[in-house]
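User: structure tokens for this one?
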Amino acid sequence: MRGEDVLPYRLKQSAAPLLKFIQVHYDDKAKPIYISYGYMRNDLIRFYVRRTREAYKNRNED
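Assistant:
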């Protein structure tokens, strides 16, 4: 099934560009457990991404 096939009707009807978010979710041992996808209209959101690796570094130092 294509991603566009599962989009809500309101997103399909919008002329605004869509942003597709792909997230990988990890367990406590930093192993990927699942992937999620989200779609948002580009004209309705504003966001900032802040990435840090401190938690990951500390987890691997044990």
